[in-house]
Amino acid sequence: MQGFVIKKLATDELFVSCAGNLEPYLIDELKELGIVQVRRGHRGVIVPKSIDNVYSINYCSRIATRVLWPLIRFPCPHRDALYTASRAIDWKLYFPSPESTLAIDANADNHPSLRNSHFAALVVKDAVCDGLRDARGWRPSIDLENPDVQLNLFIHQGIATLYIDTSGKPLFKRGYRKQTGEAPLQESLAAAVLRIAGYHPESDRLCDPFCGSGTLLIEGAMMATHTPAGFFRKNFGFAAMPEFNEAKWKAFRARADQKRIPLPKEKIIGADGSPASIAMTRAHLEATGFIDSIETLCRPIERINISFTPSIIVCNPPYGKRLETSSSLYRHLGEFTKGYPEARTFFLASDERMAKSALLPCHEKISCMNGGLPVRLYNMAPRKTADHR
To answer: φ and ψ at 212, to 5 degrees?
Structure first.
């Protein structure tokens, strides 16, 4: 390794990740946040690197899952190059005390010299620990659950980029969820589904007849009240960065929070046939402060009698253990929506046969991912009223 020279490449852009196929919607959202220079990447988008963008996206984006800040980018032909480049970073700036903790995720598949992603992560770990040991006399501890510093390594076509994750925990973990059901809908996907459905909080009345733990209801309420996506989170990864300025962050957060408005009643309603699901929903509504504004009913869909006429129905029906069980739920959903012929209807399904059981005309199918599982969003809205932003 002695005399080995690392050729550093430009690192002036952030990578903002999202679930697959949601890139166009994330691009539109970031432009609405005032970030003009945005271009599409693979499972994410690329924006200019600035701490202001880090604050804005982490706190306000409803669709993003992580905001990655590049530390170094370089040609990586072998293990020695990866170690040398990683060791060259001044890790004292990121690990101020012996109690500081570290985690590393790596994606280095198909690299000719590095055996696998796990091995690549170990190389970076050794470089970080060796550098801190020489500079400070101690090594950071590994904490895979809640590290102070989360690093992400990507090696693609021989080019390695080492990022610090400015989000910490993924951004779909909003901070209000107390418990989850068997197949929870990720909050970022729920927000994207509402956006794709053309949900207009000012004028729409939203109904979710399969509300589960209340994710769609709460995401809709946060949109309606201009509540930032990160409002209920306590921690972000950028607090460990040397670029972090606590006074500026608090000022930004205060400006965003000042835009919040109350949620009127009879704007959002949810129902579910499971008492346990309704209990979860109500616990989450209590945690977010929406308990008095959102009505919830513990009734199966064939017996729902809601107090107002919805203009939009959006839901994620449960996937039964047997296809016949799920098919009956979708059939009941179809019958339910026919009672509100003016409402736009969107639902998620993992199987084409389940969707067809609703016996509704489908105008569009949008592929997406929920926690790594492929699902489709089915648009049953009349063409003249559908708004696909």
So the answer is: 55, -120
* Global pTM value: 0.92
**Is residue 1 pLDDT above 70, yes or no?**
no
Instruction: Give the least confident one: 244-253, 314-323, 367-376.
Output: 314-323
Poorest-confidence range of 23-27, 124-128, 302-306, 316-320?
Answer: 316-320
DSSP 285-333: HHHHT-TTTSEEEE--GGG---SS--SEEEE-----SSHHHHHHHHHHH
**In this predicted structure, what is the pLDDT of residue 181?**
59
Q: Which of 162, 143, 140 lies closest to 153 in space, CA to CA?
A: 162
Q: Would you give the distance in Å from CA 106 to the centre of its chain? A: 19
In DSSP notation, 159-184 reads EEEEEEESSSS-TT--S------SSP
Torsion sign (Cα): 369, 216, 22, 227: negative
Task: Summarize the confidence of residues 337-356 as an average pLDDT.
Answer: 90
The residue among 92, 74, 94 whose CA lies nearest residue 83 is 74
* Of 163, 149, 175, nearest in space to 238 by CA: 149
Rounded-to-integer distance, Cα 158 and Cα 155, Å:
6
Identify the DSSP state of 353.
H
Q: Which residues contact 377 (CB under 8 A, 6 or more apart)?
A: 193, 196, 197, 346, 347, 348, 365, 366, 368
Helix (H, G, I), strand (E, B) or coil at 158: coil
**pLDDT, average across residues 182-208:** 93
Spell out the alpha helix ranges (H) of the chain: 23-32, 51-60, 79-87, 117-136, 187-196, 215-224, 246-257, 275-288, 323-337, 352-356
Mean pLDDT of 339-365: 88
> CA-based angle 383:384:386, to the nearest 5?
60
The distance of Cα 235 from the centroid of its chain, to the nearest Å, equals 15
Secondary structure tally for the chain: helices H, strands E: 10, 15
The 10 Å CB-count burial string (b at 16+, else e) for 31-52 is eeeebeebeeeeebbebebebe
HSE (CB half, 13 Å, CA atoms) of 236? 31
Residues 353-367 have pLDDT tens digits of 888 888 888 888 999
In this model, does residue 273 exceed pLDDT 60?
yes
- Tokens for 184, please give them: 């929870």
